[in-house]
Amino acid sequence: MSKLVNVVVVCCMVALLASPALAQEPAEPATPAAAGFSMNLGAAFGAGIVLLGAGFGIARIGGSAVESMARQPEVAGNIQTAMIIAAALIEGATFFALIVCIISG
Predict the structure, then answer these.
(1) What's the rounded Cα separation, in Å, for the pair 11 and 66?
(2) For a Cys-Cys bond, which of 62, 63, 97, 102 suits 50, CB 3.0-4.6 Å?
């Protein structure tokens, strides 16, 4: 329980300390090319995180579905349908996040 309290306290402190930093005026980059590079780097980093999350999610769905089909072969069709729907929803969210990363970069 104390670990949970510590995590909540740290999250509250981070949230309170972040607001003054966000209120500052943005610093002007030395050159316009430097600003573009940092934005592109951030978009690429965000896209990478999105793709990693989607890959882990779909892999977990696939592994769990195959394991369930092995345990109960008679419901394999229902499991496969549910797996495909869940994977399609994950891919839809992934494409949306990638488009946001590309537009912001």
Answers:
(1) 38
(2) 97
pLDDT tens column, 38-92: 667 778 888 889 889 999 999 999 999 999 999 999 999 999 999 999 999 999 9
Q: Is residue 55 part of a domain?
A: yes
* Angle between helical axes of 76-104 and 32-71 (0-180°, round to 10): 180
Distances (CA, A) of 6 to 34, 71, 102: 39, 41, 37
d(CA 70, CA 51): 28
Element of type H or E holding 80: helix 76-104
Within a domain: residue 76?
yes
